[in-house]
Specification:
With 528 residues, the protein is an alpha+beta fold. It contains 16 helices and 18 strands. The chain folds into three domains: 182 residues, FAD/NAD(P)-binding domain, CATH 3.50.50; 153 residues, D-Amino Acid Oxidase, Chain A, domain 2 (2-Layer Sandwich), CATH 3.30.9; 105 residues, Helicase, Ruva Protein, domain 3 (Orthogonal Bundle), CATH 1.10.8. The protein is 36% helix and 21% strand. The longest helix has 19 residues.
Length: 528
Amino acid sequence: MDRKSSLKEIEETGKWDMIVIGGGATGLGVAVDAASRGFKTLLLEQADFAKGTSSRSTKLVHGGVRYLAQGNIRLVREALRERGYILKNVPQLARRQTFIIPVFNTWEKMKYLAGMKLYDWMAGKEQIGHAKWLSKAKVIESMPGIKGDRLKGGVLYYDGQFDDARMAISLALTCDDLGGTALNYMKVTGLLKGEKGKINGVTATDRENGTEYPIHAGIVVNATGVFVDEIHRMDTGIEEKTVKPSQGVHLVLPPRFLKTDENALMIPKTDDGRVLFMVPWHGHLLAGTTDTPLEEHTLEPRASDKEIEFILRTAEKYLKEAPSRKDVLSVFAGLRPLALPTSDHATGKKNTKDISRNHVLQVSDTGLITITGGKWTTYRKMAEDTMDKAIVVGNLPDKRCITSTLKIHGWSDKGKSEEVLKMYGTDAEKILTMISANPDLGKRIDDAWPFTDAEVVWAVRNEMARNVEDILARRFRVLFLDAKAAIRMAPAVAKIMKEELKKDEEWTEKQVSEFTKLASEYLVTAVN
């Protein structure tokens, strides 16, 4: 996946079957589905793939226990089925995860055990385990960091965990494998219209050099998450709110607070009525998430002190050692694009907890297809529904969806989850070959982290990484795990990228300066 080649493809292609705007989970899913059906497909992303919400999730592939409690049976069944597809189609990035719900009285035992048994049953043939009751002693043995006060036992159940940012990169590579083109740092600035006012393409600007491209297509799909209304405004010129941003914040802590790298803690009801997770992830402990309604949206949302304190306060109730602000290694926020009911489009006013997590498809009078809502777990189903609609709207050949069994780029069920290069799947062998040819590339970037110079080179050459943030946030995930470590690693990464991208020393210094400023915002002490 080479950016220069992708730009050349844009210049040489007269008309695409499909243009997808947005390089997050939904857009990438649509692009993969379209390319797998044989359509000439182009995806355009204004920043890096998964720069926004899609790299800031709780890292879970799940049906949604909270949605079950709300009675949203259809969403839960759909998500459990999709969970099974992800576990099969991308085993190098997704795996089964054990969760424990702490129980403090007999009523909770009956309620949660029955609920999780139902959850398992609803998965049908995609079931991945059986919920069961654990004694107090067994819960403490399985999760030594948990408080024993008042604890009666716990309900153990199984769900899925994955690496969201790496999943996005793998989907972009899959699109490329299938003959599609995915391009980052290409901002759509306008919509092209032909006869009768129907959309027949976009104008897009390369954010690296300012070049503007008119690009024609039979169908344009708006899959831009919290930015969908900006694309709508290009289409109609009307201000309308079709999505409500909801901010979810996560804190990353050292693993000592839960004292397990196998079991995750699920808190079924926080003070605000949400579910909160504490999940082992890449040798750290991920705690979240919040649900804070916002009126504004941005690519780099910031956690509020209130959200940080809410997670710390909740954790204190369940952990022997109460974490404090000084223990937080990184804090990150993402914005969920919750689809508003049509009746709320004028004002955008609705409590985020009352908005369905189902995805919504819309087709404008000009033929623009918009997909909103949903979540990572159901990205494939959202893409399938979008493409089925696109075939009708665009009068395209009726080709069936094959993505439920499509193996994602790098597919490999070999290797243990802790192996350093497992996330690359079959590409790991190519990286090892690079190191074999040039042993200097096998040098670690930082003694405390497993990543090597070769992986930076690989990401630039094959994964369209364009700057230090792309590497440390979404290719390596260090920024999300330990912001101070990411700042420490930035100069070494910039130096390698400088050589690969043929940049000068001024570029290197600017990269380090900009990344340091960005990463400082992921430190709790820097949050206002």
